[in-house]
């Protein structure tokens, strides 16, 4: 038996080594373009074209100063932060309430209600952009924060309900039953007992929706026309000129635009990974 174990070990080591090598190559492929983007933000246009993949000759913040003072970048950043935070907060609020009712209460139409929410995941909202635009225009919500936030909430609720329902169903019912015996209200049980336990799932839903909302270009392009209401992805197109483009300023804008959502993931990564692993185990 020891000989069989010994013969399997080299093969297992080779397999693990191959997996680690593939992961390292994949990480390099994903990270290197970001590294080039960040390094290019410190270069001039001439240096970007003469040595696009080399390190900058000196690290200058001139491009960052120009982005901050000569463009409307701060306004675009504030718009993206406000819209993303409002949309994610509403998605978490409504999807949590719906998922809690579906997962923790037994009623005849619970499966049908869940399927109603899941049906929203089957058809991309972009396919309905024309009737959606007409409806928002009739409500006076085109070229407004509210119209864009409502679109993002409608996009995010189906998947959020699916994730939260699956996670809440795994929580033991003894917790809420003992709380009811102690006289706790239904709202108190949800707020003080269930939601703290569902924090990993809430983080997954938040990150899963925050990243595409932050990076979305399509809906702001269609629904937003005023420059003061533009989000970062839409606003960064202003940096691209018709005949010439200041690539150093553009790369700086891209770097600054990617920074907030990257920091958010770093801060919440522990909860994010915890939610994924708990879901896998359960």
In DSSP terms (H or I, runs of 4 or more residues), the helix count works out at 13
Rg for CA atoms: 24 Å
User: What is the residue-averaged pLDDT?
Assistant: 85
> Structural class given helices, strands, pairing?
mainly alpha
What's the CATH H-level superfamily name of the largest domain? MetI-like
**CATH architecture designation of the largest domain:** Orthogonal Bundle
Under CATH, the topology of the largest domain can be stated as MetI-like fold
Considering DSSP H and I runs of 4 or more, what fraction of the residues is helical? over 70%
Shape: globular
- Ends apart, CA distance between termini: 34 Å
The major beta sheet can be summarized as: none
Number of strands: 0
Low-confidence stretches: 1-5
Order of helices and strands: HHHHHHHHHHHHH
Number of domains: 2
Protein name: ABC-type sugar transport system, permease component
Subcellular location: Cell membrane
Family: Belongs to the binding-protein-dependent transport system permease family.
Membrane topology: Multi-pass membrane protein
């Amino acid at each position: 038996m020891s000989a069989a174990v010994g013969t399997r070990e080299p093969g297992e080591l080779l397999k693990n080594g191959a997996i680690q090598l593939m992961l390292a190559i994949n990480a390099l492929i994903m990270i290197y373009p970001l590294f080039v983007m960040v390094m290019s933000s410190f270069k001039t246009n001439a240096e970007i074209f003469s040595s696009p993949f080399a390190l900058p000759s000196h690290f200058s913040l001139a491009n960052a100063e120009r982005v901050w003072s000569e463009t409307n970048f701060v306004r675009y950043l504030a718009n993206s932060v406000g819209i993303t935070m409002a949309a994610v907060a509403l998605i978490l609020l409504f999807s949590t309430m719906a998922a809690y009712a579906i997962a923790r209460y037994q009623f005849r139409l619970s499966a049908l209600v869940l399927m109603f929410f899941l049906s929203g995941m089957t058809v991309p909202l972009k396919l309905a952009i024309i009737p959606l635009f007409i409806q928002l225009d009739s409500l006076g919500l085109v070229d407004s924060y509210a119209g864009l936030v409502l679109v993002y909430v409608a996009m995010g609720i189906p998947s959020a309900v699916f994730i939260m329902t699956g996670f809440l169903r795994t929580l033991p019912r003894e917790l809420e039953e003992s709380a009811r015996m102690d006289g706790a209200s239904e709202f108190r049980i949800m707020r003080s007992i269930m939601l703290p336990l569902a924090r990993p799932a809430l983080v997954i839903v938040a990150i899963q929706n925050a990243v595409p909302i932050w990076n979305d270009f399509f809906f702001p392009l269609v629904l937003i026309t005023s420059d003061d209401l533009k989000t970062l992805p839409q606003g960064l197109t202003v940096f691209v000129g018709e005949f010439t483009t200041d690539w150093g300023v553009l790369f700086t804008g891209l770097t600054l635009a990617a920074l907030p959502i990257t920091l958010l993931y770093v801060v919440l990564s522990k909860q994010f990974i915890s939610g994924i692993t708990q879901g896998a185990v359960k």
